[in-house]
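Please decode residue identities from the backbone states below.
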């Protein structure tokens, strides 16, 4: 071990970001490093953030978590994708599913063959060609297992929904068992070293001083270290991402227990619906430029499926990112580093990605600037590509029924996004850029789902006869349908494998 090794890591904040960082660090570093997490019971966590994308499974595997135990502890459910209602036009519904679409044939993805037949009016809905989009329509779920490889069942790709506060509690237990020391207290001051401006310590209201070599700022939107102390600027993206408010409220569960998040567009934003075992998490994300808080609250409360379980919580936010998320001896992880509205459930993934990147670029006391620059460059790329994907949801709409949607349809968008839309609009093509998070299946489903129709398709597809393509697509469609037919319902699957001990609160759907 190098004598230059740093010893003391201080994590500031005990929300999802803080405890995910503590869990991952303690798993990798064991007791070779001193890891301290400071949080204040006086300052609530954001308390939302309950829908994920499939990469969370990698995080769980890296921590060696038992999936059933994790779901039981967090009242968790499975998620095969997101249903978007009323986005392209009022009355529309499509699913952005996490699994693949059909199979490749020769050099082309299934989508190209489907596109040709769809343009000829001879292919059914795109949803029928992916198990991740067909199964949710009948609330079916099955975990893919290695022995299912080769069947569409082996292609099922899932994420999770979970209760955010139970998730932090679960990871706290995991971290403390591995040596993380939690300190309760409100931080009132950050002390910088005179010589180089590095963070030396944080001071609690009690007067206790906590010193460290490396600080992870998980203090949420307060950004105590990266913002207040180190003065790293925040880049506001609200000219592209128009929503800046959220209202969250839980309601009782209803049957069926669907294996997807629902996002329903309203006249100045959209509503999330996240089904957990013990309740449904709901929220209305909207633009304060186009809608008042009272109107947004009443839309949300009038669109709950079950009985309201608590008073609404109001959460203002600024969509954007911190320009530098690693500066000197401090890395911002979680909301302190930036925030995308939750339409594609990307923020917990960004936490996970940041943690993995810090571990790969882990510093010694020297804090090499080249490592820090690499970290910041990778983070910026990741944020910008996710940003484009999210803007797509607002831009690609035919809705003209409200000033908000007229604004979104007509707004300027980044050139990088325009390029992807142009490429898809011509011949239905998409190319993933480097390590960008969302790949072809995601982009194609959202662009198609929101009404973008390519003018043509790759002409080389015509080298196969129509009959051959018809048979190829027909076979995919019928095999997927047969597989969905034999899958259990999501509710039955959970009851068999990972039901939480506190019984589910189930009620009949409310009549609106
Ligand atoms: P917080 O939860 O705010 O935690 C901050 C911590 O810092 C707390 O423990 C607090 O006590 C501590 N702290 C702050 N100041 C001090 C101080 N002075 N002294 C000591 N401690 C202090 N993400 C998804 O992936 N999926 C979703 O579905 C999703 N939905 C969302 C919906 C909304 C409306 C919002 C706003 C966010 C959503 N997110 C979602 C994002 C997700 O909630 C966050 O990324 C995640 O919860 C991480 O938050 P955090 O830990 O950074 O901050």
């Amino acid at each position: 071990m190098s004598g230059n090794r740093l010893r003391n890591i201080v994590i500031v904040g005990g929300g999802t970001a803080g405890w995910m960082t503590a869990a991952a660090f303690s798993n990798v570093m064991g007791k070779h490093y001193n890891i301290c997490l400071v949080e204040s019971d006086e300052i609530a966590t954001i308390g939302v953030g309950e829908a994920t994308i499939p990469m969370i499974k990698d995080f769980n595997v890296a921590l060696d978590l038992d999936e059933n135990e994790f779901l039981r502890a967090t009242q968790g459910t499975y998620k095969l994708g997101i249903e978007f209602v009323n986005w392209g036009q009022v009355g529309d519904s499509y699913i952005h599913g996490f699994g693949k679409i059909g199979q490749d044939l020769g050099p082309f993805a299934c989508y190209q063959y489907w596109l040709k037949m769809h343009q000829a009016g001879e292919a059914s809905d795109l949803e029928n060609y992916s198990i991740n989009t067909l199964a949710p329509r009948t609330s079916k779920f099955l975990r893919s297992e290695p022995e299912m490889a080769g069947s569409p069942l082996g292609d099922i790709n899932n994420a999770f929904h979970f209760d955010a506060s139970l998730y932090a509690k679960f990871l706290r237990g995991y971290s403390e068992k591995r040596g993380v020391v939690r300190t309760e207290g409100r931080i009132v001051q950050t002390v910088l070293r005179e010589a180089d401006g590095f963070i030396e310590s944080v001071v609690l209201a009690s007067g206790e001083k906590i010193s460290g070599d490396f600080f992870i700022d998980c203090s949420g939107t307060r950004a105590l270290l990266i913002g207040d102390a180190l003065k790293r600027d925040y880049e506001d993206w609200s000219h592209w991402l128009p929503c800046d408010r959220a209202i969250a409220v839980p309601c009782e569960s209803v049957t069926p227990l669907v294996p997807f998040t629902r996002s329903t567009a309203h006249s100045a934003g959209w509503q999330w619906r996240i089904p957990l075992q013990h309740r449904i998490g709901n929220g209305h994300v909207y633009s304060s430029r186009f809608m008042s808080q009272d109107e947004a609250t009443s839309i949300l409360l009038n669109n709950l499926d079950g009985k309201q379980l608590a008073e609404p919580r109001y959460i203002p936010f600024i969509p954007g990112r911190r320009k530098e998320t690693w500066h000197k001896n401090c890395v911002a992880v979680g909301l302190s580093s930036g925030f995308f509205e939750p339409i594609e459930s990307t923020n917990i993934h960004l936490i996970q990605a940041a943690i993995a990147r810090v571990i790969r670029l882990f510093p010694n006391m020297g804090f090499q600037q080249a490592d820090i620059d690499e970290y910041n460059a990778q983070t910026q790329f990741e944020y910008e590509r996710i940003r484009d994907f999210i803007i797509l949801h607002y831009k690609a709409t035919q809705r003209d029924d409200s000033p908000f949607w007229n604004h979104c349809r007509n707004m300027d968008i980044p050139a990088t996004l325009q390029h992807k839309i142009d490429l898809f609009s011509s011949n239905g093509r998409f190319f993933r850029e480097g390590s960008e998070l969302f790949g072809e299946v995601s982009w194609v489903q959202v662009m198609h789902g929101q009404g973008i129709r390519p003018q043509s398709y790759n002409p080389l597809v015509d080298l196969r006869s129509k009959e051959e393509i018809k048979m190829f697509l027909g076979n995919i469609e019928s095999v997927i349908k047969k597989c969905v037919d034999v899958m259990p319902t999501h509710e039955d699957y959970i009851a068999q494998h990972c039901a939480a001990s506190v019984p589910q609160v189930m009620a009949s759907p409310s009549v609106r």
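Observation: The CA atoms of residues 24 and 62 lie 8 Å apart.
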